């Protein structure tokens, strides 16, 4: 049976067993490939789906991408319970085990360095949302101009000018909440980043389609020792309480996805030329 | 949302993290290693950008009845037909709106 090797992560040997029922991308159970004391977690994937051509096509298919991403993450999650994995990007695929081994050998030092730095640490994701829809009407009522009140404006038959004014007030109300949420997020980030070992700011997730759920104004990741995580979660929890119209969302613990950055992108294997 | 018992085991699939959170990480973060199967990373990056533009909280979108992956033409070839039909309808509507206006304006 022909199959390719899909690599999820590289980690140090771990004692606890992975969940017995764990299945990876394309359904096959992940196994461990040891090389020079490091472990690559791999599973066999069909060439029909993961060779270059089909893979490229699949990546444009969001259903496929969703299933694959979730399966990938499920393996990383399982690893995060028992060890500190270095997660590889989705769809890192080799022809066979020996291809994986050569890669591990070539990058061995990098792996060890980053593993040392991330050992025992997890990533927490924190997002702040401005609940623009909920705050909108309240703010709007407060903003009604006094001159307007005597006129008994009819909600249905609005003139173009009324319509524009209403739109303007809506926009303004949204911006008010947005600014408040941004300021709140700034303070929160200050607190959390001084507690965490490292932090990364990510692009907010766009809310074009989910205005009702609020607008994501802040999206960050924090690197926290596992042992300090409870305290970190409490910090986030406390911040939630005094924030009307603002929603704080915590996700994790993740593998330290956002903190593998110093693992330089692979250069072609050219011998370095001295200056 | 209570957090008391959230540590240290990771959430199960589906709880906590939405699809955007997962895609953001597995597509955009993590270690990049060129495997034997070389997919053009640009393909992924384009897709990621596309996702950034449209993905908010998928769960919320679903709650709102939006299956956006089925409705975005760039992400699903299935949606091409719908997109064309929608665009047609939109153009027709706009045309219908414009025509009487022009008539009024041109009237002396």
Automatic annotation (TrEMBL), chain A:
Family: Belongs to the gas vesicle GvpF/GvpL family.
Alphabetized InterPro entries for the sequence: GvpL/GvpF
Gene Ontology terms: biological process: gas vesicle organization
Pfam families: GvpL_GvpF
Compartment(s): Gas vesicle
GO cellular component terms attached to this protein's record: gas vesicle
Keyword ATP-binding: no
Taxonomic lineage from the root: Bacteria, Bacillati, Actinomycetota, Actinomycetes, Kitasatosporales
Keyword Membrane annotated: no
Signal peptide: none
Main location: other
Keywords for this protein: Gas vesicle
Transmembrane segments: none
Superkingdom assignment: Bacteria
Region (Disordered): 135-164
Protein name per UniProt: Gas vesicle protein
UniProtKB/TrEMBL annotation, chain B:
Pfam family name, one: Gas_vesicle
GO MF terms held by the record: structural molecule activity
Localization per Swiss-Prot or TrEMBL: Gas vesicle
Keywords: Gas vesicle
Main location per the UniProt record: other
Cellular component terms per the entry's GO annotation: gas vesicle; vesicle membrane
InterPro entries: Gas-vesicle_GvpA-like, GvpA, GvpA-like_CS
Family the UniProt entry places it in: Belongs to the gas vesicle GvpA family.
PANTHER family reported in the protein's UniProt record: GAS VESICLE PROTEIN A1, GAS VESICLE STRUCTURAL PROTEIN 2-RELATED
Protein name: Gas vesicle protein GvpJ
Provenance organism: Streptomyces regalis
């Amino acid at each position: 049976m022909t199959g390719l090797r899909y690599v999820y992560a590289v980690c140090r040997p771990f004692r606890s067993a992975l969940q017995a029922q764990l299945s990876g991308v394309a359904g096959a159970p992940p196994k461990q490939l040891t090389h020079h004391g490091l472990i690559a977690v791999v599973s066999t994937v069909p060439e029909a789906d993961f060779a270059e051509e089909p893979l490229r096509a699949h990546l444009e298919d969001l259903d496929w991408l969703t299933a694959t991403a979730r399966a990938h993450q499920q393996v990383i999650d399982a690893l995060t319970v028992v060890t500190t994995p270095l997660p590889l990007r989705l769809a890192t695929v080799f022809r066979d085990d020996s291809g994986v081994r050569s890669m591990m050998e070539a990058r061995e030092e990098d792996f060890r360095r980053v593993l040392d730095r991330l050992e025992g640490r997890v990533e927490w994701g924190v997002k702040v949302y401005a609940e623009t829809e909920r705050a909108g009407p309240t703010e709007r009522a407060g903003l009604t101009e006094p001159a307007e009140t005597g006129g008994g404006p009819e909600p249905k038959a609005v003139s173009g000018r009324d319509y524009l004014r209403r739109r303007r007030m809506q926009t303004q109300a949204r911006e008010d909440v947005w600014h408040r949420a941004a300021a709140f997020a700034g303070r929160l980030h200050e607190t959390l980043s001084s507690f965490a070992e490292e932090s990364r700011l990510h692009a907010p997730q766009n809310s074009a389609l989910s205005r009702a759920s609020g607008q994501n104004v802040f999206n960050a990741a924090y690197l926290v020792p596992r042992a300090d995580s409870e305290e970190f979660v409490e910090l986030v929890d406390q911040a939630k309480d005094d924030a009307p119209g603002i929603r704080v969302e915590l996700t994790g613990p993740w593998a330290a996805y956002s903190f593998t950055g110093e693992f330089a992108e692979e250069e072609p294997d050219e011998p370095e030329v001295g200056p | 949302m209570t957090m008391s018992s959230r540590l240290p085991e990771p959430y199960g699939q589906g709880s906590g993290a939405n699809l955007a959170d997962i895609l953001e990480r597995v597509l955009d973060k993590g270690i990049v290693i060129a495997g034997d199967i070389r997919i053009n990373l640009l393909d992924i990056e384009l897709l990621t950008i596309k996702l950034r533009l449209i993905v908010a909280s998928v769960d919320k979108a679903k709650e709102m009845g939006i299956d956006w992956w089925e409705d975005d033409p760039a992400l699903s070839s299935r949606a091409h037909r719908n997109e064309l039909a929608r665009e047609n309808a939109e153009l027709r509507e706009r045309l219908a709106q414009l025509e009487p206006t022009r008539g009024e304006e041109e009237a002396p």
